[in-house]
Please model this.
Amino acid sequence: MLSPRALILRAPGTNCDYETAHAFERAGAIARRMHVRALAEKPALADDFQILCIPGGFSYGDDIASGRIFALELKLRLGDALVKFRDKGGLMLGICNGFQVLLQTGLLLDGQATLAHNTSGRFVDRWVHLRAKPGKSIFLQGIDRCELPVAHAEGRFVARSSADMAALDAAGQLVLRYTPDASGASTNPNGAMGDVAGVCDETGRVLGLMPHPERFIDATQHPSWNGRLDPTAAGAGLTIFTNAVRAVA
Model:
């Protein structure tokens, strides 16, 4: 049986594609990095993959707004192909900038929410504590609590209305939230509504999250691993990639 194949879709300014491809490979997939224009020239290439990931970075320099130009390019040149990929059962993952892109294309939540500037007005780069409530999310199965790093200036989850927030919560789509650390201090780095750090679609096959799981696939990537974590153990982020690969194997 052939190994599952993961497509890592990049654009100018993407800077987490190598790490993301490595994470999928560690999880057992065959990962291929591809420039968005290469896929736009031949959209049928998407049929060769079971997983599509838009990784983190600063696509097109985050001009206008984070992920905006990349999202517009996808909608105009690959909209039908990506909807087809999603609707036929393909898994889609958007990490940080990729989460911003998925929301702005409408491939995730269809306009019910956006990601705004951090309330601090600053770029935030640190580790956060997270609580998962996976529900249908394929990517988060088996995860309860974990730590992952964040690095963004526009990561504040904002629902379009209180009614939309309530509907998403009731549907079990608010699957990842920032949670207090051991001292009880908040680790919400951006002021997100409801402490939301990640959301999924109604099927659980599409996930967008602000934290970077690809940056914690080995225990030694944690800043305080020495004396606290088994250096031979996998990092918490690897589970997200392993879940995806197993689901399509």
In short: The chain has a mean pLDDT of 96.
